[in-house]
Amino acid sequence: MSRPSNSLRQPLAKARGLGSAKEGSGHFITQRVTAIALLFLLPWLIISMIKAHVQHGWEAAALWLNMPWNAVPAALFIVAAFTHMQAGMQVVIEDYIGKTWTRALLLILNTFVALAVAVIALHAILKVSSWV
Amino acid sequence: MAEGGSAAAVKKAGAPERPLSPHLQVWRWHATMWTSILHRATGIGLYGGAIFFTLWLVSVSLGPQIYGVSSSLIGSPVGQIVLWAILFCACFHILSGLRHLVWDVGFGFKKQTASFWSVVIVLGAIAMTAGLYVWVASAPPPPPQFGGMPIQ
Question: I need a labelling partner for B130 at 20 to 30 A (CA). Which of A3, A132, B11, B73 fits?
């Protein structure tokens, strides 16, 4: 941190370009905001499915998912849940996996799996929603 | 360095015991530690739970035959254990996550408060899961067949 006393160069010049990218808190905030959404969406999902007797056969399940007031919150749940779990699993991987390559591979895999499964779920919801 | 070392050794003889840094073998388990580990474990469990829910959604979208297969899988003993484990993870992660949000705002950090709520959260999650189980088990018989649901 010390600089020669005879230098006229400001320490700022050394710091420029190496500092905060202004997104250090982005991950933290994403995790919390999706958590607040899921605090409502997950209990709704469980209670709504039990009330609809989805375990009693395909008709009950399809009718439940066909209703827009079920399909839309279910889709919101998918978006919030997969964002939240991608962020959460990222922290777990960063905490426990030290090897650079293994860590990088798992982080990429985590992102791909979360995105792929979310899109598959949304596709299924939209497909059932399209039945008139 | 040698002088400092011997001075420390002399001081050690009469001085009170210093706290040790955390280590697996000298670490006393306490409630907040359990909930911290459980929060992470249930979070990983819910990762599987979200994939499980997605497979269920896909089975609904594939029609009655495939839904019959997924229903009988979930209805099997292993399927039931998986399902209720996921629901326990959900109950615990919701309660514990709520407390994390309260912590984020800056409340509940006193040692006794944190320990107290840790026990409440664990017992609450067990009670919530049991409540859901009783609700589902005591549900009335299947409702009459739904009419007016055109098949695809």
Answer: B73
Return the residue in A36, A59, A82 with the most chain B beta carbons within 10 A, the one to mutate for interface testing. A59
CB contact under 8 A, B94 and A43: yes
From A9's Cα to the closest Cα of chain B, the distance in A is 38
Are the beta carbons of B130 and A109 closer than 8 angstroms? no
Which residue, among B105, B111, B123, has the nearest Cα to B38 in the 3D structure? B123
Which ipTM score applies to this complex? Answer: 0.85
pLDDT tens digits for range A43-80 = 999 999 999 988 888 999 999 999 999 999 999 999 99
- A29: phi then psi, degrees, rounded to nearest 5: -65, -45
Answer yes or no: do B47 and A125 touch at CB < 8 A. no
Is the distance from CB of A84 to CB of B94 less than 8 angstroms? no
In angstroms, rounded to a whole number, what is the distance separating the alpha carbons of residues A62 and B63?
Answer: 8
